[in-house]
């Protein structure tokens, strides 16, 4: 899927990030279904700084879960990684980062990374544990695979980790089956399993969405504590801005398979740039606002996945829509002036059109002329 | 667990009670009473019965009793092991059925085993290699397997392998049990087993494939992969174990087919099982014999379902708790 | 991709890729499209359509009366069709085997007799209504031989037995056509009975729950506890032997549906149960909708596609059951024929090895069953177009 627009945008992508655990570059993932091609990711680029929590925010269907699965190389068929790179640096002093996508999905190298270097917890604690094996058995499995093949020691280790995640009676919990535990307990067990091999990165895909608010708060606190303890980086996928405020150091906002804004958590909340981010924040109910005032919603819905939107994908719903520009030209990622780590993809900000990029870099390339046309179609 | 078994056994007794009622109705259903058949037999041997003789016989057979009294008489005898007389063979039904039923049970048992041993690996392969040529081949075979009538398959296999059927070679048929006879049995058993289990194997393969595809979409399979487990271990340990659950439940559905298949196949294959005698009894309206077989087939089925329930409880911890 | 280059309002609309865009299609269109994509299902549908068409025109297509006995054609091998300016059959010469005292027949292809199309032969009623004697094809007997005893050594046109003859010398091809009328319809009619019964009982069971559901479930379990084929056989054996063909047909379908409904009822019950707890049902009830109204406007339309799929998948099992029953001698009785009764002739291995064409009705059974399964599977996938 060579798309000149995205080529331009890659060349302008941020190249710093001296110590990132993960660097994702121009990732494209498509699902080839019987009903057509779904372009789940359309050139996603971001980095996860070591030891930090990166929040990935977006509505359902924005591609945030697929991004998480891509890092594990677990995108289910018919999903296919069309292009892009995911660079993984195990330690700060690792000389050459490893491109995860260069490993085979089922290769031994990839499996050695999964669960050991990078692990993942999922949204539904009710279904993410295997109902026919005891919790202890399932945690033990990862430990024995990656760290210690001795079953008895692995058993002791799994009880330890269950204790660490705040299970009241770890020995008994280890022997029990998932259906005997509550949702919160199961998610603790999942976290225990994911952290059992002290991974460099934990991908948490909406880990608290299915839980009630009190349990959610406990789980978030637990994750934050463990993160401080172990120093694991976390990619925290969520659609809940409140959770983001509580958990994350940095935030990437996704819309329709692209990252539209990327900033520190403070900047996102106090100085959001992208109209989509602004709308997202406005739609959160807040204490202290006037009663009777209507809560804002983002008009329209996420377009159906089989269609492609020309220009900026957000334009049909955007309050600052500029006819002639937003519906034809795809904005590229631009750095907000004066802020190194704040990028946005929106025509409201200078440097967003491919022409401007070319001019700004002092390079005149052929792409500047063709890009708007490709946006328009055929 | 003990509770579970006791409850199941109780339900089983109730089921058998109702089956006995249905069976009895089936005995009484054909036009003409058992006595008519007996009288016809006596007349065929020469000589007519006068009215008083006839009345004496009616008294003895309880022809004019109310239906529940007849049922009570029949079932109380049946519980004591007396299932009435076969007119056709003119001997108690019990003497006719045991040996035949033994072979039927053996055949049904081997067929289940065969169906499982073949359908699980095939189903797993088919599900994990979707839309490949072997998957298509398995799918087509499985369509044919379900579609082909047992007797037709039996005939085709007999022609192909130049077999004459039966469970033993001619010289072994009446020989006492020995190791040689056992080997001879095994040499003959494969053909009936294939014939009887073909449909069920095909069906179970399809069920296994569908189940596994279902399970492979479950989150816990993804969890297992995210741990870094080998794909083969993800499938055989985490997925198959869960996909077996509905498969075990289908035993209940497959057993009737196996028993029915045995009945049909045994006719073409000349097997010393219950099938041919049962069909013959039905043809000749030898109802006590036929229905006794039907009762025992049902008993087999009910026991099979009980075993399936126990297996299920063994495989799935969620059911154990109930 | 085509974007309307019109007004600004137009351009704000989501661009359509093309007319086939899945996002823009209705549920029904999606189902149809999904069904068409399944090549096997379309193949199954076409073959079944042809088979039913052949059954409807069976007498027109059959060159001979299916029940006409001809001792001189006993176990006649399929007739060889040669080309002589058109399809034709060879002459046939009859000789007496003096050792075994049997008539022997030999082909004499020096003389050929053309196959005539739309020729006139035995009379029949098309669709049971229109009396006619036109058949698609046939080889006319020489007028002189019509009633005459064949002379030894003299050639006469061979009978056109495309698929050979049976023991009584009847044309297997014509018999198969005739048999298809019973075999292809018994399953269908039986399943229709069963579907109506199963849908009503299943809906009642799932919707009202409680005691009704309990009783229904126990009854279904009870029927499931008796092996199907033996139970069918026992029921069919209990039918009186002297009833008419039509009544026997009716009873057989009834017996088949007596057991087939349980599976359907169970499936429908499961569906209805899940709808019953759905919010829209509670909403309809809260809005004052009667039970009948909720069932008819919410349950039935929702379950419809599911019912059709389950029914389609139940047809092959029922056809198979009829074939097996008839094969065992408990189904249709002579003079009625079905594929199962035709296969009765093929019970012994000795006969089958010598006259393998007697197994051909079995091939027809397998073909019909496989096609029904293809169709059912395609329908199932189509009913769940997002699956």
Question: What is the topological layout?
Answer:
The complex is a heterotrimer of chains A (378), B (322) and C (387).
Chain A: H1 4-12, E1 20-33, E2 36-49, E3 53-57, H2 64-72, E4 79-88, E5 98-99, H3 108-113, E6 118-121, H4 135-146, H5 151-164, H6 170-175, H7 183-195, E7 201-205, H8 213-230, E8 233-238, H9 241-247, E9 250-255, E10 258-264, H10 265-270, H11 275-282, E11 334-335, E12 343-344, H12 354-360, H13 367-376
Parallel strand pairs in A: 3-8, 3-9, 6-7, 7-8
Antiparallel strand pairs in A: 1-2, 1-4, 4-5, 9-10, 10-12, 11-12
Chain B: H1 2-28, H2 34-44, H3 51-61, H4 67-79, E1 85-86, E2 91-92, H5 93-128, H6 133-147, H7 150-160, H8 179-216, H9 219-226, H10 231-249, H11 251-269, H12 274-283, H13 287-315, H14 317-320
Antiparallel strand pairs in B: 1-2
Chain C: H1 8-12, H2 27-37, H3 39-56, H4 58-61, E1 81-83, E2 87-97, E3 102-114, E4 116-126, E5 130-138, E6 155-157, H5 172-208, H6 210-224, H7 228-237, H8 245-276, H9 279-286, H10 291-328, H11 339-344, H12 349-354, H13 360-383
Antiparallel strand pairs in C: 1-2, 2-3, 2-6, 4-5
Summarize the structure in words.
The complex is a heterotrimer of chains A (378), B (322) and C (387). Mean pLDDT of chain A is 80; it is low at 1-17 and 358-378. Chain A contains 13 helices and twelve strands. Chain A starts with a helix and ends with a helix. Chain A is α/β, with parallel strands linked by helices and 378 residues long. Chain A has an eight-stranded mixed beta sheet with strand order 6-7-8-3-9-10-12-11, sandwiched between helices. A two-stranded antiparallel ribbon of chain B has the order 1-2. Chain B is globular. In chain B, helix 5 packs across helix 11 (251-269). Chain B has helices spanning 2-28, 34-44, 51-61, 67-79, 93-128, 133-147, 150-160, 179-216, 219-226, 231-249, 251-269, 274-283, 287-315, 317-320; strands spanning 85-86, 91-92. Chain B starts with a helix and ends with a helix. Chain B has one domain (94-321): MetI-like fold (Orthogonal Bundle). Chain C is an alpha+beta fold. Chain C has two domains: 79-160, no CATH class; 173-382, MetI-like fold (Orthogonal Bundle). Chain C has 13 helices and six strands. Chain C has helices at 8-12, 27-37, 39-56, 58-61, 172-208, 210-224, 228-237, 245-276, 279-286, 291-328, 339-344, 349-354, 360-383; strands spanning 81-83, 87-97, 102-114, 116-126, 130-138, 155-157. In chain C, the strands form two sheets. In chain C, strands 1, 2, 3 and 6 form a four-stranded antiparallel beta sheet that branches. A two-stranded antiparallel sheet of chain C has the order 4-5. The longest helix of chain C is centred in the last third of the chain and has 38 residues, at 291-328. Chain C is elongated, with a radius of gyration of 28 Å. The two termini of chain C are 26 Å apart. The chains are: A alpha/beta (378), B mainly alpha (322), C alpha+beta (387). The interface between B and C is large, with 50 and 39 residues.
């Amino acid at each position: 899927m060579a798309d000149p627009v995205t080529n331009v945008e890659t060349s302008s992508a941020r190249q710093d990030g001296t110590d990132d655990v993960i660097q994702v570059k121009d990732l494209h993932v498509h699902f080839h279904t019987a009903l057509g091609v779904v372009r789940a990711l359309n050139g996603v680029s971001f980095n996860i700084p070591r030891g930090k929590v990166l929040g990935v925010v977006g509505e359902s269907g924005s591609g945030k879960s697929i991004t998480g699965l891509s890092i594990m190389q677990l995108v289910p068929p018919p999903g296919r990684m069309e292009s892009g790179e995911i660079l993984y640096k195990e330690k700060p002093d690792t000389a050459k980062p490893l491109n995860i996508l260069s490993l085979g999905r089922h290769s031994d190298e990839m499996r050695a990374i999964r669960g050991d270097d990078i692990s993942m917890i999922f949204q539904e604690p009710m279904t993410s544990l295997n109902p026919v094996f005891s919790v202890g058995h399932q945690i033990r499995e990862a430990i024995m695979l990656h760290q210690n093949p001795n079953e008895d020691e692995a058993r002791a280790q799994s009880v330890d980790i269950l204790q660490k995640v705040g299970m009241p009676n770890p020995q008994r919990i280890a022997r029990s089956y998932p259906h005997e535990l509550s949702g919160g307990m199961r998610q603790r067990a999942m976290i225990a399993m994911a952290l059992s091999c002290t991974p460099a990165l934990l991908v948490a895909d909406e880990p608290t969405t299915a839980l009630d608010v009190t349990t959610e708060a406990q789980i978030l606190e637990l994750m934050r504590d463990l993160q401080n303890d172990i120093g694991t980086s976390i990619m925290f996928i969520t659609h809940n801005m409140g959770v983001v405020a509580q958990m994350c150091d940095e935030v990437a906002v996704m819309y329709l398979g692209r990252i539209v804004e990327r900033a520190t958590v403070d900047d996102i909340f106090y100085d959001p740039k992208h109209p989509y981010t602004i709308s997202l924040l406005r739609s959160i109910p807040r204490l202290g606002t006037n009663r009777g005032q209507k809560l804002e919603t983002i008009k329209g819905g996420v377009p159906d996945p089989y269609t492609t939107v020309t220009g900026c994908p957000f334009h049909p719903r955007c309050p600052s829509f500029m006819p002639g520009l937003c519906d034809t030209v795809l904005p590229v990622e631009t750095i907000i002036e004066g802020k190194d780590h704040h990028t946005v993809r929106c025509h409201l900000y200078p440097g967003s059109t491919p022409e401007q990029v070319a001019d700004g870099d002092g390079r005149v390339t052929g792409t500047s002329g063709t890009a708007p046309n490709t946006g328009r179609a055929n | 667990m003990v509770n579970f078994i006791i409850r199941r056994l109780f339900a089983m007794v109730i089921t058998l009670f109702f089956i006995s009622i249905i069976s009895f109705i089936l005995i009484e259903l054909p036009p003409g009473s058992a006595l008519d058949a007996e009288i016809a037999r006596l007349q065929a041997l020469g000589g007519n019965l006068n009215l008083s003789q006839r009345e004496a016989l009616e008294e003895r057979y309880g022809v004019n009793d109310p239906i529940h009294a007849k049922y009570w008489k029949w079932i109380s005898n049946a519980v004591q092991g007396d299932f009435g007389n076969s007119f056709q063979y003119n001997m108690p039904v019990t003497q006719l059925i045991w040996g035949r039923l033994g072979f039927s049970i053996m055949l049904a048992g081997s067929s289940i085993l065969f169906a499982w041993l073949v359908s699980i690996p095939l189903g797993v392969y088919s599900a994990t290699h979707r839309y490949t040529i072997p998957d298509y081949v398995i799918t087509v075979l499985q369509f044919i397997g379900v579609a082909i009538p047992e007797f037709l398959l039996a005939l085709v296999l007999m022609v192909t392998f130049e077999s004459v059927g039966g469970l033993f070679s001619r010289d072994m048929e009446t020989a006492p049990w020995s190791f040689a006879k056992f080997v001879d049995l095994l040499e003959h058993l494969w053909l009936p087993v294939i014939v009887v289990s073909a449909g069920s194997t095909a069906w179970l393969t399809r069920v296994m494939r569908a189940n596994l595809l279902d399970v492979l979409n479950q989150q816990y399979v993804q969890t297992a992969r995210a741990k870094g487990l080998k794909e083969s271990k993800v499938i055989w340990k985490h997925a198959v174990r869960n996909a077996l659950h509905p498969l075990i439940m289908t035993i209940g559905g497959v057993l009737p087919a196996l028993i029915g298949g045995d009945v049909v196949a045994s006719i073409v294959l000349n097997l010393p099982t219950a099938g041919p005698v049962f069909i013959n009894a039905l043809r000749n309206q030898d109802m006590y014999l036929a229905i006794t077989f039907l009762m025992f087939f049902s008993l087999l089925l009910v026991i099979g379902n009980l075993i399936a329930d126990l297996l299920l409880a063994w495989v799935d911890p969620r059911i154990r708790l109930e | 991709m085509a974007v309307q280059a019109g007004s600004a309002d137009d351009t704000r609309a989501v661009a359509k890729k093309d007319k086939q865009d899945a996002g823009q299609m209705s549920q029904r269109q999606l189902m149809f499209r999904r069904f068409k994509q399944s090549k096997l299902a379309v193949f199954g549908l076409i073959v079944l359509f042809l088979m039913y068409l052949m059954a409807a025109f069976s007498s027109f297509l059959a060159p001979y009366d299916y029940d006409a006995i001809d001792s001189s054609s006993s176990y006649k091998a399929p007739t060889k069709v040669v080309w002589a300016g058109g399809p034709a059959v060879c002459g046939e010469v009859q000789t007496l085997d003096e050792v075994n005292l049997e008539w022997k027949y030999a082909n004499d292809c020096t003389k050929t007799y053309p196959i005539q199309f739309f020729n006139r032969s035995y009379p029949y009623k098309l669709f049971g209504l229109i009396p006619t004697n036109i058949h698609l094809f046939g080889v006319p007997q020489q007028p002189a031989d019509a009633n005459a005893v064949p002379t030894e050594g003299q050639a006469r046109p061979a009978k056109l037995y495309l698929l050979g003859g049976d023991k009584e010398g009847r044309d297997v091809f014509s018999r198969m056509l005739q048999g298809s009328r019973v075999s292809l319809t018994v399953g269908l009619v039986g399943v229709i009975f069963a579907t109506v019964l199963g849908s009503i009982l299943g809906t009642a069971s799932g919707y009202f729950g409680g005691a009704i559901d309990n009783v229904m479930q126990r009854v279904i379990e009870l029927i499931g506890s008796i092996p199907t084929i033996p139970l069918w056989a026992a029921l069919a054996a209990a039918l009186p032997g002297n009833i008419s063909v039509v009544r026997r047909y009716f009873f057989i379908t009834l017996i088949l549906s007596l057991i087939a409904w349980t599976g359907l009822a169970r499936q429908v019950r499961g569906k209805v149960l899940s709808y019953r707890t759905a919010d829209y049902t509670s909403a309809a009830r809260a809005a004052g909708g009667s039970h009948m109204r909720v069932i008819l406007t919410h349950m039935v339309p929702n379950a419809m596609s599911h019912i059709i799929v389950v029914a389609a998948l139940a047809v092959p099992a029922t056809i198979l059951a009829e074939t097996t029953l008839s094969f065992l001698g408990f189904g249709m009785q002579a003079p009625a024929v079905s594929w199962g009764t035709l296969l009765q002739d093929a019970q012994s291995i000795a006969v089958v090895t010598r006259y393998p064409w007697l197994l051909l009705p079995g091939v027809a059974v397998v073909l019909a069953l496989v096609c029904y399964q293809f169709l059912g599977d395609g329908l199932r996938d189509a009913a769940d177009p997002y699956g």
